[in-house]
Design brief:
The complex is a heterodimer of chains A (321) and B (322). Chain A is α/β, with parallel strands linked by helices and 321 residues long. Helix content of chain A is 44%, strand content 10%. A 5-stranded parallel sheet of chain A has the order 1-2-3-7-6, with helices on both faces. In chain A, strands 4-5 form a two-stranded antiparallel sheet. Chain B is an alpha/beta fold. The chains are: A alpha/beta (321), B alpha/beta (322).
Chain lengths: 321, 322
């Protein structure tokens, strides 16, 4: 399949942005600038960038806790993203929600639930609105292989399928639910795709370390969903490079397997592809990285300077009135 | 016009659906059947299957999808057949519905209503009879409505459907067939405004749902014994109209709380704590709670009756204050 240089460069930039974002998140967390816990998505960029390359205006997104930088790819300003992550007033909820609740509805982001999977049906509900508005938009609903086993997930996909709503469910199979390997938790090999048969909907498995493979799979299913035929499930195979949270010693898994997976680096793969096809030069790559780092640093600086939400505003946003 | 509590609820939904085509209705058996109590009968015929839908048995997804529909511009009025089943979606109600706007910011509005039938109904058993308002009072960000008569049910449901905040609307099964004359012209009832169902001077009795009816029966018996009780129906437990209750207690100096759910950590516990914190100097005696016994509600009718407050138990509780 022939891709334009612009398209490929754009994908690459988003991959790098997400990678640098997730690395930066780890960095500022280590410096004590982030309350609570973070869940680094380093190494899982391709699933998000590849699927989101099929997005269009008016689509909705239900992202997950990993990688949170996906919010920036969708279009939430970095100042807002980092302010929310650092618990500051300039975050979307003024730091009331925090790192897992970075969301702007004006960008189509529906929000996230910390009880994983309970937000899957939120995406399904947004499908009702799309149906009423009679557009060819869709809802991107991301979930992991661990979450895939929850009952709330079954209910949500079943409802979307029964009502033929425009939802693309994306199972990011990074193989781990904290310490539990997917093979221990799921009786099927592919906890997203294999279960599609239970709902009578199509599915596809893609290589979550290859952004173009993800894109092709997502494109095919997104076209199906946009045509009004109902939901579909895309499962991307990847690997969680870091621990579930920072400080996770990962003694439950074989470090040599992790190393093997880290060689399947989606960013490096894309870089190689672009260089080999003369779509990009080393200088341009350096420039892209520098520019993104500058943007990230500026946003972090902004967030650091953002005040904390004052205590007298603690009840705000609880009710509209 | 003379309507039942059930008809008043159905009429409120229809009137609001006529006004705003973003209002949609879905839940288990709400369409052709008009729900298992016949409350939503005729709504499918008038508004069509795009706006009125049966769901599979998916309480979790009913609530989750209502959030997604609400934040993106619809006004879902969804039904969880029995309040008991809301516990299947307790996570969604407690964590998601009640916290979504707070966690994600002011762009997010959740104009959704969750209707549920609650309460004892002569042998429905331990899992189809619960009154659960107090569980949800403990949550944040919810509005909790528990109407005791047709007039209140209609006016409060219309307010609920128009509200930009999420509302849990509990309908008592034993009240569905009670009849009342309500205005022909349109009206709404604001949240957070209690109604004094009967004025009195000696004891303030705060009662909720079906217990309002039972308390009014008790008031007749007590009147004959020379005790005058003031019966207050908060109508919405959240927000709670403290001022009406406080004003009454300033007059009577005695308070009783009547509820149908279990006594421990119930509505009465909360109101008693609140009154002793804020009205201590006004009180001439302990605040007495009348509530169900702390057991799963038995199926046997005699045992069920033994568990739940009735007029006689309310009379005894009031008399214990003298």
């Amino acid at each position: 399949m022939a891709y334009s240089k612009d398209f490929l460069t754009e994908l690459y930039k988003e991959l790098v942005e997400l990678r640098l974002f997730e690395e930066k998140l780890v960095e500022i967390y280590a410096l004590g600038k982030v309350p609570g816990h973070i869940h680094s998505g380093v190494g899982q960029e391709a699933t998000f960038v590849g699927t989101l390359a099929t997005r269009k205006d008016g689509d909705y997104y239900k992202i997950s806790h990993r990688p949170v930088g996906t919010a920036a790819i969708i279009g939430v300003p970095l100042n807002t993203v980092f302010s929310e992550i650092m618990g500051k007033r300039d975050g979307n909820s003024g730091g009331r929600g925090g790192v897992n609740h970075v969301a702007l509805l004006s960008k189509g982001m529906l929000g996230f639930s910390g009880t994983l999977g309970s937000d899957m049906a939120v995406g399904v509900g947004a499908g009702l609105t799309i149906r009423k508005n009679k557009t060819d938009n869709l809802v991107y609903v991301y979930f992991g292989d661990g979450t895939a086993n929850r009952g709330a997930v079954y209910e949500a996909i079943n409802l979307a399928a029964a009502w033929k709503l425009p939802v693309l469910f994306i199972c990011e199979n990074n193989q781990f639910a904290i310490s539990t390997h997917v093979s221990e938790a799921s009786p099927v090999k592919n906890p997203g795709a294999d279960r599609a048969a239970a709902y009578g909907i199509p599915s596809k498995i893609v290589d979550g370390t290859d952004v173009l493979d993800v894109y092709e799979g997502a494109k095919e299913l997104a076209e199906y969903v946009r045509s009004g035929k109902g939901p579909a499930i895309l499962e991307a195979k990847s690997y969680r490079w870091r621990g579930h949270f920072e400080g996770d010693q990962m003694k439950y898994r074989d470090a040599s397997v992790t190393e093997e997976w880290m060689k399947k680096d989606s960013v490096e793969k894309m870089e190689k592809y672009l260089l080999e096809n003369n779509f990009i030069t080393e200088n341009e790559i350096t420039k892209i990285r520098e520019e993104i780092n500058v943007e990230l640093d500026k946003a972090i600086e902004f967030a650091e300077a953002s005040p904390a939400t004052p205590a007298e505003e603690i009840y705000e946003y609880l009710y509209v009135k | 016009m003379l309507v039942t509590y059930g008809q008043a609820i159905g009429d409120a939904i229809k009137e609001e659906m006529r006004k705003d085509d973003n209002v949609i209705l879905y839940g288990e058996d709400v369409a052709q059947m008009g729900n298992i109590f016949g409350i939503t009968k005729g709504i499918l015929e008038e508004f069509g299957s795009d706006r009125v839908k049966n769901t599979p048995i998916v309480e979790t997804a009913i609530i989750g999808s209502a959030i997604g529909a609400a934040v993106t511009g619809l006004r879902p009025c969804v039904e969880l057949m029995y309040a008991d089943f809301s516990l299947v979606a307790f996570n969604e109600l407690f964590h998601c519905v009640g916290k979504w706007r707070y966690m994600h910011g002011p762009e997010f509005k959740l104009p959704l209503v969750v209707r549920s039938a609650m309460g004892s109904s002569f042998g429905a058993g331990a899992e189809h009879s619960n009154c659960l308002e107090s569980l949800y009072m403990h949550a944040t960000g919810l509005t909790i409505v528990s109407p005791s008569c047709a007039y209140d049910a209609k006016g409060l449901l219309k307010t609920a459907i128009r509200s930009d905040d999420p509302v849990l609307f509990f309908e008592h099964k034993q009240l569905y067939q009670t009849k009342e004359n309500i205005p022909d012209e349109e009206y709404t009832i604001p949240f957070g405004v209690a109604d004094i169902k009967r004025e009195g001077t000696d004891v303030t009795v705060i009662a909720v749902g079906l217990m309002v009816k039972k308390t009014l029966e008790a008031a007749e018996i007590l009147a004959k014994k020379g005790i005058s009780i003031e019966v207050i129906d908060p109508r919405t437990l959240v927000p709670f109209d403290k001022e009406t209750v406080f004003e009454s207690v300033r007059k009577t100096h005695r308070a009783v709380v009547v509820e149908e759910s279990n006594k421990t950590a119930g509505i009465g516990a909360e109101l008693a704590a609140m009154l002793q914190e804020e009205m201590y100097d006004e009180l001439d005696g302990p605040i007495v709670r009348v509530a169900a016994l702390d057991v799963p509600l038995p199926y046997n009718i005699a045992l069920e009756k033994y568990c739940i407050p009735d007029a006689n138990k309310i009379v005894s509780a009031v008399e214990s204050l003298f």
